[in-house]
Amino acid sequence: MVGTPYYISPELIEGKPYAMASDIWSIGVILYELCSLKPPFNAESLHFLALKIVKGQYPPLPSHYSRELRNLVGMLLQTEQRRRPFIHEILKLPVIVNRIKGFLTESIRHSEFAHTILHR
Questions:
Q1: Which 3-state string (H, E, C) describes the chain?
Q2: CA–CA distances in Å: residue 20 to residues 12, 54, 84, 89
Q3: Domain 5-84 has CATH 1.10.510.10
Q4: Are 73 and 31 in contact (CB under 8 A)?
């Protein structure tokens, strides 16, 4: 097994094979950490960290973040991998689309995302 324990998905802890859903989980952990400045799951040992991850219980993000962002984190940190969204579904969410539009001009957005689901 490789990687940082804080970002490992519940299914990998349970010995299930790797799937893209594990990467979606890790994106959720990173997004949570960017917002709260700490990982969603923390413990004094690897054993207890694994237990917390498998349970999927973490402190909620502060309420000053939008409901859409908090919902996105919740979607990404679903303990059941089949309930996590695919990347193309995430890229279609208004909270993501609006952020991309807010940071990139139309021409840059087109050149950066012409090969992705965002190209219309």
A1: CCCCHHHCCHHHHCCCCCCHHHHHHHHHHHHHHHHHCCCCCCCCCHHHHHHHHHHCCCCCCCCCCCHHHHHHHHHHCCCCHHHCCCHHHHCCCHHHHHHHHHHCCHHHHHHHHCCCCCCC
A2: 11, 17, 10, 13
A3: yes
A4: yes
Model confidence, pTM: 0.86
Domain map of the chain by residue range?
5-84, 86-120
pLDDT digits (tens, 9 = 90+) for 54-102: 999 999 999 999 999 999 999 999 999 999 999 989 988 999 989 888 8
Band of the pLDDT at 116, cuts 50, 70, 90? low
Residue 1: per-residue pLDDT = 53
Place of tokens 């802890």: 13
Q: Residue 114 and residue 49: Cα distance in Å, rounded?
A: 40
One-letter amino acid of 63: S
